[in-house]
């Protein structure tokens, strides 16, 4: 197990450098005129252009320029310096301010997914073809069909503005309650998927041989479902949730925008819009690490859930 | 067990809701105003908070709280002195600025002429890379501060007379210099802002010290808020609120939702998608006031097919401006038929004459006789909500001129400019302009002069350049305006761009504030706004 984790950690280092190279290359290739992008529609003064060009080596183009700037970036990165954004803020500071709220939001979304999604999925799986099963099927289909970009403003308008059940936006340093609505909205998509997945998995396992054996041995139903079926059914669900946690951290661009939460997605969106190359690469590099760790945790959890799985 | 957990889950929001409603019913409106309350105003994350490096509305709104300008503009958009006692000149070259006594910076330093001179020198010095450095280009010695290795560190045109007086020598006569001084690039900086002469302290921007009616409360909370509180030692007109929280939003739609539920007091621009419902949502808290923005379509001169002015006039004539402002913008913008905005002195209505009158039959005849191209492309930036009106314009051109017309989106305005600079065919392209100070010159100079900073389409007319230069050098503002108006008439003949619309401030406020007014620069007037008790 330890050797497995070590090997994976070493692979992560390679994967990290590979992805930063790709992201850096994409930003480099897609970059138009970042100085003008920063100024929007206003004219840029010569002085400002010269200043930013020199500071960010923007005059270094072509293959040579790319490697020069990439290795410059990596050299600083290895010293723990993520660099400066085009507006002169330390990217490390931006990320330090953005991560806590995004993590909170992702955890709320994840909790909602696990509590509601997995619980309802187990119930629906046990009572297959019941009213509960059919109504959850319908509901999850609706949720899966409505994209977040529609769901978030509707939830904000109805629950926040019209009925005033929740604050319409969360803002910076929000309390738990303000994050609840965005969390539910963000989690609803993975909730629906988790529910469908759990339901299918439970329904399948209930027909497995070992369940019949256990039942014929006279075990109570609660123990059969709670221990044996659940443990086996959760393997695909855990895979899904692990990957989803990575998604929730980085993919909250829409939700964070609608509810005005200055998290990672919020900053990523602005960085892309203003062609702030250093900031995009900085955020994505950290997201890569999050994904890699989430995947590693999932793999380790496999072994915990299913003793037959062994790592060498 | 499982059921109980579910029940608890649903009970939680319910309980909190009950708690919330209980709190909400506690406050009863009594109609008075509360001088001890703070108000909350929406902004976007400012790019910078150094006066000479701030040229977008969000940063400029925050600086307006922290600083008091030398001059401001009255209801007729004429300049009057605020922090300055007088701004005078005999020859329009040497200007004497006398400061009012009694102004202090928020750290207690008295405001002196040196503070202005130091700040302006810092702003003009090219290696500092300040975004508004071009405001100082009219001051003598500006050239020596430019380039990679400038030959001087200070503007030769700035000269201290005594603690409250300094002279500004311009490199050429300019009668509008006093009007210019209202822009935030001309604010002073305290000694404390500099770590050594000419070097701005790194931390200054996080908590700017000014001499205005409000001082910083804490530091700039990036992406979250900037809070300011009343500065009691301010000698000018005191604000009627105790403080302001400038709350940072990335999307105006989120701010709008907050204003609807009284979680935010002022939204400075209501998003287009909410314009149709805003009058009913907000009632008399939905307001408009004149703004300075000007939207137009421009013809790149390198596209030969539009070289005949008659073809350009025909296209202008074939556009029904009223229909677009009404249908697409719900009257939040007004049709434009001149090259400068109605908010500046010297504006005249309908200077483009017939070319601004919607007349499909005449337009088509003129277009055909001028040999206009059978295909028109209108380029725009896809991130600014321009698709709807560009498509509407295209449809009008298709119907009225019998041409093929497509709108083509570039991701960002900078991408559009990159193409224009490389002289790639983009067809017509949209542009907008917001003034820096209320003067005709601020529209004519940058937009249509041969070396204008925003003349991206390459319009050149020596006659026009000469008239604008004469206007700038004229002895009085009246004479200047006469020259500018002559210059505008040349534009009407050449039609280098098609004026389309003037913008307005379309804003809304919560039920907790009153007396909300926005100036021409889309800034809330912080001395007027009041909180309802």
Shape of chain A: globular
Structural class based on helices, strands and sheet pairing of chain A: mainly alpha
Quick one: CATH superfamily of the largest domain in chain A? MetI-like
Q: Tell me the β content of chain B.
A: 15-25%
User: In one word, what is the shape of chain B?
Assistant: globular
Number of domains of chain A: 2
Oligomer: heterodimer
**Can you tell me the CATH topology of the largest domain in chain A?**
MetI-like fold
Could you describe the 3D structure shown?
The complex is a heterodimer of chains A (312) and B (533). By secondary structure, chain A is mostly helical. Chain A has 2 domains: 2-78, no CATH class; 97-305, MetI-like fold, CATH 1.10.3720. Helix content of chain A is 78%, strand content 0%. Chain A contains 13 helices and no strands. Chain A has helices at 2-30, 34-39, 46-55, 62-78, 91-126, 131-145, 148-162, 176-206, 209-216, 221-250, 253-258, 264-273, 277-305. With 533 residues, chain B is of the alpha+beta class. In chain B, the strands form 6 sheets. In chain B, strands 13, 14, 15, 16, 17, 18 and 19 form a 7-stranded mixed β-sheet that branches. Chain B has a 4-stranded mixed β-sheet with strand order 1-12-11-10, with helices on one face. In chain B, α10 links the parallel β16 (375-381) and β17 (404-410). The radius of gyration of chain B is 26 Å and the shape is globular. Chain B starts with a helix and ends with a strand. The chains are: A mainly alpha (312), B alpha+beta (533). Chains A and B meet through α2, α3, α5, α7 and α12 of A and α1, α5 and α11 of B.
